[in-house]
Amino acid sequence: MNEYNSDAKVPCPLCGVYIFKERMVRHLTRCKNGGAGTELWKSGIMKECPFNSTHIVKTAELEAHVHACESASQAVAYYSKDGKSVYELFRELRHKDPPRCNANSVESDNSSSSSMGEEEWGSGDAEPYNPHKAKENQAILWKHRSTSHGKSARRQERAKNNEKYNEALSIEQQGPGLHRASSSATQLSAVRPLRKETVEVAKRRHEVEEVQSRIYGDLNAATTALTLAAGRGRGRGRGVAVTPPPGFGPRPGDEAVETFRIGRGTFRVESGLVRRM
Question: What gap in Å lies between CA 189 and CA 182, rounded to an integer?
Fold first, then answer.
């Protein structure tokens, strides 16, 4: 049975709860942001040691803590050199005059650079800028999905990136015009041709629709003509001199009377006249 080790846990400086040392940084992050020690931390009563984030003391005791802090002594020993502490080095650097530039050296540098530029531009030996050559050795940075999207999403993203790369390579090799023509040709060739049965069915359907539209158009025209000539039903029993619509009149050599309905009215054709019954 494992024995309880009291030294493994230390109290939190904000809420007083005992926490393992290796978990103290995570606990303090939560405790300061919405935890039990939020009010104490935001009020400014407690401050954090600049050398160790797990050392949180009162604001009035912070200076004394820094002088006695073990992490502070380690940092001073690390940055000190030649027997001088980091504070002494800082004082020396602070009291030193800042580096000043020499005007003569700056003028000589400017004159040399300007003369070199004039020689390069004036001689005409410099090569013109070539964007393709400039990008030959540049690394291609692809935008990948994170690991949380799963293997299938990352596989699809890699396939898209490869397709983009191949397309850019073909554009560079063939040129924009040839690449566009070849891509459109592949798209047209990929379309599946229609079967003969499908074409015949479409033709028959088109013919039937044309016949129906012609019949309905003639019937609507006949209805309008009868309504205008008969005065909206006032010509009951009287002959109306209206030419019957196509398909409703007497056929040649046939003396039979044909009867038909338009809307709510019933009409018959007798010797070239349409009468309402």
Answer: 11
What pLDDT does 80 receive? 73
The one-letter code for the residue type at 76 is: V
Q: Which residues of 73-83 are buried (b: 16+ CB within 10 A; e: fewer)?
A: eeeeeeeeeee
- The letter for the amino acid at 207 is E
pLDDT digits (tens, 9 = 90+) for 127-174: 777 877 777 777 666 666 666 677 888 888 888 888 887 887 777 776
What does the alpha-carbon distance between residue 76 and residue 51 come to, in Å, rounded to a whole number? 10
Within-domain flag for 23: yes
CA 35 to chain centre: 37
Domain count, the chain: 3
In a domain, 1, yes or no: no
Structural domain boundaries, residue 249: 232-277
Work out whether the CA dihedral 72, 74, 78, 82 comes out positive or negative. positive
List 46's β-bridge partners, or say none: 58
Q: Among the listed ranges 216-220, 251-255, 258-262, which one has the minimum average pLDDT value?
A: 251-255
My answer on whether 57 and 76 are in the same domain is no
Start-to-end Cα distance in the chain: 113
DSSP E strands, 128-248: 239-240
